[in-house]
Every structure is written in structure tokens, then in C-alpha cells.
Amino acid sequence: MGKSSLKTYLKLCTEFYDLEPHPNHTEALNFYIQKAYEAKGPILEPMCGTGRFLIPMLEENLDVEGFDASEYMLDALRKKLSNINKKSPSIWQQFVQDFNNNKFYNLIFIPYGSFGLITNIEDIKKGLITLYKHLTSDGKFIVEIETEASVNQPLNVWSRSLSNKSDGSKIALNVFATYDKKTQIFQSTCRYESIINNQTKEVEEELFQQYIYKSNEIDSLLQETGFKHIKKYPAYNNLQSIRDNTPIIIYECYKN
Hints:
Number of domains: 2
Order of helices and strands: HHEHEHEEHEEEEEHEE
Structural class: alpha/beta
CATH class of the largest domain: Alpha Beta
Number of strands: 11
Radius of gyration: 18 Å
Largest sheet: 7 strands, mixed
Number of helices: 6
């Protein structure tokens, strides 16, 4: 798995993640599938999670593979793949900053602000360099970043949400969220509870951290890495312009 270790996205977190779909998922999925078709070649999704994008792309017969740092996320993904009548793609466990193989991709994409989970600047730079290296000469990199405008949930108070599983049990998520403008770190203390017959049977605690980008911050990092023809726009509309209150920005850039 490389030099790094993961202390988040464990068992109950993964189950809750799959029960709570992203509110803009249909729009996002249509966007990335279109980009995948345009790539006309191998596609890589780092931080692929449980396959929200990878599996639909596979069902479209696109040449896609992915990796993730969470063994629990990958276990859930492999279980889903075993239930569809498709040849399983290459899936492996790894961190972006540790990624290295001998393949090159026409498209590498990281949706939903997941790139912000890399909070150390040296790891961010290392991750961008290795992704750049694994693009074909005319390959494209697409990444979503979240800005301060995305930090809109209640801060400095506990909140609780509940999701129902198909077997009648539930998973509760208790969150205490904070945001430090100086470090640009959004932090959530998370407590997951597996509830069966109204009794808590299992508890899992995680400290979730995400780096929140300033609106122009990643531009220079992409340029320093060597990316060319960098354009950015609000998710998921490349006809709109970035504003001060744009919560999610998509960056689209090329190796050459």
C-alpha cells in the first residue's frame, strides 16, 4: 500500500457512504461519462471509492480502472463488481502520492472534491506530479476542488443523521465539524453507530480532514507540475464563470 496509512473510511463509514448518495450524482455522472467517451482510450480514477463512477463507466464498456487508499471501500467495490456481468477491471489499494505503474492514461479524473483529502502540501505536489507522469502525451486531467463556499454545514455543534439498510438495521452518523481559515482545514469528528433492533451494536470513530482550496490556489500548483491549457468552471457547467461564492470548481488540463 506504500508508505502511508489510512485511519478513515473504515467499515461503518463505507457502509454509510454507500447509503447516502451525493445530491448531484446524476449530473456529475453524466458529465464524467461524457468526458470518458471523449478520451477514446484508457481511463484512471484515483480515489475511486466504492465505484460510483467506475461501475457505470464499466457498464458503458469504457476502458477504466481505479485505486483507493481504503481497503473497506475497495472491498465494497469488488462485491458490487461480482454482481454485474462484466469483466472486472484492474482495481488496487494505493494512495495518490504513492501511485506508480508502467501504464499511461488518456484521462485521469478525481471527482467530488476527494483530492482535498490530501492535506499535506508536499503530498499534494507529489500526487500531481505522479498523475501528470501517467498521462499520455495528449492526456487530460480533471479534478474537482472545494472552496470555502462549500463549507456550509453547521459548524461547532454536533449533528446527527440516520440511514436505513436493506436488512432493517440502521447506521447513525454523529458529526462535530470545524473549519480553520488559517490552515484551510475542514475537520469532522465522526462517530458511526450500527443500530440493530434499536440497540447500538458497533461503534466506529474517525477524524476526517479535508483541505479547502482558495479559488485560485491550485492554478499555480497545476502550472508548476507542467499541466497546460488549464481551464476551470463551476461544476458541472463549462459555460459559466467562477464567482467568489462558487463552492465546487472543476479544473480541466492537459499534459501537453
